[in-house]
Design brief:
heterodimer, A: 18 helices, B: 201 residues, Four Helix Bundle (Hemerythrin (Met), subunit A), elongated, ion transport (chain B), F/V-ATP_Csub_sf (chain B)
Amino acid sequence: MSFGEDTWEMCLFNVKDGFLEGVVRGYKQGLLTTADYNNLCQCETLEDIKLYLTGTDYGPFLANEPSPMHTTSLVDACTRKLVADWRYLRENAGEPLGRFLDYCTYGHMIDNVVLIVTGTLHERDVQELLEKCNPLGMFDAIASLAVAQNMRDLYRLVLVDTPLAPYFSDNLTSEDLDEMNIEVMRNTLYKVMRNTLYKAYLDDFATFVHRVGGTTGEVMGELLSFEADRRALNITLNSIGTELTRDDRRKLYANFGLLYPHGQAELAVAEDFDQIRAAMEKCPPYQTIFSRLGLGETQMLDKILYEEEVRQLINTYEQQFHYGVFYAYMRLREQEIRNIMWIAECVAQDQKSRVQDGIVFTF
Amino acid sequence: MKLLVLGTAAMLGLPSLLLLLYLLNVDLHYLFFLVRNISPYFWSALGISLCVGLSIIGAAWGIFITGASLVGAAIREPRITSKNLISIIFCEAVAIYGVIVAIILQTKVEAVKPNADGSYGLAAANAGYAILGAGSVTGWANLACGLSVGIVGSSAALSDAANSTLFVKILVVEIFASALGLFGVIIGIIMAGNANFTAQG
């Protein structure tokens, strides 16, 4: 069966998406290499960093930045590059690639909604919050999120028009909406809300890529499984010692991934890091990850997981005729921006000895 | 996908249906009568049109697959355009094979008088089927060849854009893909070699 599918995929993929695949592979060529990072690490000031980045794909976006540079303006300029690329892809995409690209940004949309809602609760200026939002996850009515007084308003006035609406309506019942006064969210509950939404989003995204099928389904299935498992791990790590019950925890795990369902069941009852580790190590791919982690080095876990993700993302470029390359480009560029931010922060705060620790090398 | 299933079902289904009818003693003679009485000129025309038509579909499809990737990849690396035109030329060659074989086949077609009952002689029937066979062999071989060259050409464009040392290596693969169409051409020409409408007998 897969013979016929793959043949048709090779013959028909380029009809709609061949051009953009070529474009996005071109963008990927512009990502910084290890040599670039080594040069960046030698920089003494933010101006040096800016000067070096002007010679890369970021050039046109940094050219008009006024001196003196700040870390935030540097990162903003780099983000503008990603956003410009992404807009170009989105505007030229046919279906179902267009929907796929939209799906990639729903995660940012959820982050933005949570950021605005929690920010308003802490009585922060809306304009200031909007500037902090990720531009990839912007939607028209986002500013009016701030005026909503309770969850029901929030849903009816704003979110119902966004693609996030089903994630709200399916997971938060009408009683939830009534009861979940926005004041309640002041506690850690908003994290639960964020994770509930993210779980619904991941499940939905996984269903979508499965429906697209073929190589896209295969490649994206792997990437999303890793994402789901990483979230499950992080949720478990962060919920140790909180009042989140096992059932609540279980509800926040996505319904797929390598850990689904037995690994998740073990994670749900895990009480400390060693139990989490035992649960994860039953899954061979994670065993190798955890074996790189010495005993008691929980801080290193994030970086190791980022490195593993980057490795998987680069692997997507080994295959042709699938959508995974678009997702991978976005994630790799975001990782690169995180790296630049780390380098810039280290330089700005005179912590150059630590600069190598935070970089996740891509190539 | 559905097409593939339907095609397989039809290919397996038709012979078994005929066998069933034969076993049930249904008179199938009229079927052979029908096939025998189709003019050899129809078969030769069908062969020639399949030859040129399928070859050109293969070439066009291949050029399209390569072209889409080539244009996309050339945005960042304009240097690849002239080099990768060779992939387009390989696809185009497939169409030329089809046209050449079609011209050769076409020269075989000559007018002969039918018998008194409207049927044609052995030589004419032989020539008609030979041209049909030669045309289909060339056509289908070139369709597969065009798709193959197109897909490899698309990868060639993308990999050349990523790393220019890969171009020559992937070009070798592409040349082998391009040779597939020639097999069809050779067999087609050999098959048509015997075709002679005006032969005695």
